[in-house]
Amino acid sequence: MPLVTPLSENHDAETKQLAEFFNETLGFCPNSVLTMQHRPAISQAFINLNKAVMANEGRVTSALKRMIAWVSSNATGCRYCQAHAIRAAERYGAEKEQLDNIWDYRIHPAFSEAERAALDFSLAASQIPNAVDENIKTRLYAYWNEGEIVEMLGVISLFGYLNRWNDSMATTIENGAVESGEQYLGKHGWEKGKHK
User: Locate the Carboxymuconolactone decarboxylase-like domain: which residues (predicted)?
Assistant: First the structure.
């Protein structure tokens, strides 16, 4: 049972209009956004931040951004965000072999060294204490420029917010996200947990 009940998609007209972004990303408006509507300024600011963070201005693809989000969410243990990130990665064209083997990105041949550097950055930046060090920096700069690194950290930071929000709220997970979670993550023990 969620800590706070999500409101109707029609509760706030501006949030509803902004939330159309999620129809492409996930195929539905997330319950997290519907809960944020209790203070519409938060839901509106969050959606605008999400849109800015997920905009592609360099070589960091939409699929890679969602895999970065998955690694970050996996590090923090948020099952809601793990399922959302893997679903969005799928919808944005991540290779099936990558989706099936995201747990093994460090060694699986479906991932390039540039992707590994980005995903290791996500893991290091999502840990407490933070584990970003000179080795992570050196590997990032071997493949990515400063603007692209900013994009990546934008995703990691956005999901830091979402991981805390959804785990604390015990946000009810939507059916589409459950399907993707079970398909790609279930073999490694993913389940809804508190997000029922």
Answer: 40-120
Global pTM? 0.96
Residue type, position 103, single letter: W
CB 37 within 8 A of CB 4: no
**Residues 45, 99: Cα–Cα separation, whole Å:** 30
- 1: burial class by Cβ within 10 Å (0-12, 13-18, 19+)? exposed
- Find the mean pLDDT for residues 61-75: 98
What is the rounded average pLDDT of the residues 118-132?
Answer: 98
